[in-house]
Design a protein that fits this description.
- This protein has 322 residues and is mainly β.
- Helices cover 1% and strands 60% of the residues.
- The longest helix is centred in the N-terminal third of the chain and has 4 residues, at 59-62.
Length: 322
């Protein structure tokens, strides 16, 4: 009823750029892992794992390109390092009747070479008559991050209800995360007598004294969850789902007052399918039923950067299995 799994992954990869711009980077990682499972009984398990993983940056972040629009410039960073993470996970789970499950666990991640979007206001050259002040965006690396968290999940059918209602089910998961990341201390945007000239090493935007500052881990919300009410039988499956997250940091500016956050969000979606026969299946999806906007703010919730509405959208289709 118990066992230990151990192994090592050694992925290797590279990116090759051709045509007018040529560059090449090779990334090699040694990824050991150790997993342990203890079965208390046929339905209840305890799991533990220590693993190493890496994160591949977005493709646009690492290709050598430059895109300009008015006074905004986005630049790729082929020298961007891939974040490497050491992960510790502890989990307990128990299976219920009708494919139900209850689980809960805690986790910790130590991440090196965190990557984030850095937006700075600077000149592209020393000839100020030719190079005006631009908003320049490029992904860069920080130092490291620590992420602690707990998560829980539940799924079960309401089989105790009478008749057709016995096909109803509930699903939910919730994750709480506490994170902090360390980066080299930034020069404030209003640094006295300092004119920022952009160089791709970004050295002019950070102090050289070894000072650091602590930020929230970019892209990591403190609270996140998904909840769903579904109906499932041999022919019909329908699900109304809600998902939410608290605000999180998406990009860093010259100083903390210019950091951009994605505001808290709550989405309600619906999807369903009906199995007409062995060949035909009708499906429907409706997303963002509540017309939840995308809100961004700068520095604090008192200063909105922008708010965008995209309304709901849906699709209706027919699937044929031959």
């Amino acid at each position: 009823n118990q066992g230990i799994d151990a192994g090592v992954d050694y992925p290797a990869g590279g990116i090759l750029y051709a045509d007018t711009i040529y560059d090449k980077r090779t990334q090699n990682f040694l990824l050991p892992q150790l997993q342990f499972k203890y079965a208390l009984n046929p339905l209840t398990n305890f799991r533990a794992a220590i693993t190493y993983t890496y994160t591949r940056p977005n493709f646009d972040d690492i290709i050598p390109f430059r895109e300009s629009e008015d006074d905004e410039v986005t630049i790729g960073n082929p020298s961007l390092k891939y974040p490497l993470s050491m992960n510790i996970d502890l989990l307990a789970e128990t299976y219920l009747k009708n494919n139900g499950i209850l689980s809960g666990g805690v986790f910790y991640k130590k991440i090196e070479n965190i990557a984030f979007n850095f937006v700075r206001n600077a000149h592209m050259g020393t000839d100020f008559n030719r190079y005006g002040l631009m908003e320049i965006t490029m992904a860069v690396n920080g130092q490291d991050a620590n992420v602690f968290g707990a998560e829980t999940q539940a799924q079960f059918k309401l089989s105790f209800l009478p008749g057709l209602l016995a096909n109803l089910g509930i699903y939910g998961n919730y994750t709480f995360t506490q994170s902090s990341a360390t980066i080299t201390k930034r020069y404030p945007q209003n640094e006295n007598n300092k004119v920022f000239i952009f160089n791709e090493d970004n050295a002019e935007f950070f102090t050289s004294s070894g000072e650091t500052e602590t930020i929230q881990m970019p892209g990591q919300a403190q609270h996140a969850g998904n909840f769903a009410l579904y109906y499932d039988n041999k022919r019909i499956y329908a699900k109304l789902s809600a998902n939410f997250h608290s605000p999180y940091l998406i990009e860093l500016g010259n100083d903390a007052g210019l950091d951009v956050y994605y505001d808290q969000s709550f989405h309600l979606d619906f999807n369903a399918n009906y199995q007409v026969n062995k060949v035909l299946n009708i499906f429907a999806d409706v997303v963002n039923l509540t017309n939840e906007p995308q809100r961004y703010y700068m520095g604090s919730t008192d200063y909105f950067k922008k708010q965008e509405y995209y309304s709901w959208w849906g699709r209706l289709g027919l699937k044929i299995n031959l």
